[in-house]
Specification:
By secondary structure, this protein is mainly alpha-helical. About 55% of the residues lie in helices and about 10% in strands. Strand 1 and strand 2 form a beta hairpin. The protein is rod-shaped, with a radius of gyration of 24 Å.
């Protein structure tokens, strides 16, 4: 008997109406899609860190000096 937990309470999915079962299927689909997006975001965040690190290494290798003393914590977009 498959169950679903909503607001901390377990419900038997076999007791759902057809409309309820359709909503459950939609909810399950969305949860899978959200997990895929989280995984994709993790890939982008990793690539972002690698590109930033590589760029910083190139800047240091070239001996380029900052144009101001303002420190960027990495959260501001590059201009």
């Amino acid at each position: 008997m498959p169950n679903i937990k909503i607001n901390g309470l377990d419900y038997n999915t076999e007791d759902l109406s057809e409309q309820g079962k359709a909503q459950l299927a939609s909810l399950q689909f969305l949860e899978v899609q959200m997990q895929k997006i989280k995984q994709e975001l993790a890939v982008y965040q990793t690539a972002n860190a690698v590109y930033r690190s590589s760029l910083e290494a190139e800047i240091q290798k070239a001996g380029i000096k900052p144009i101001s003393e303002h420190t960027n914590d990495g959260d501001e977009p590059a201009e």
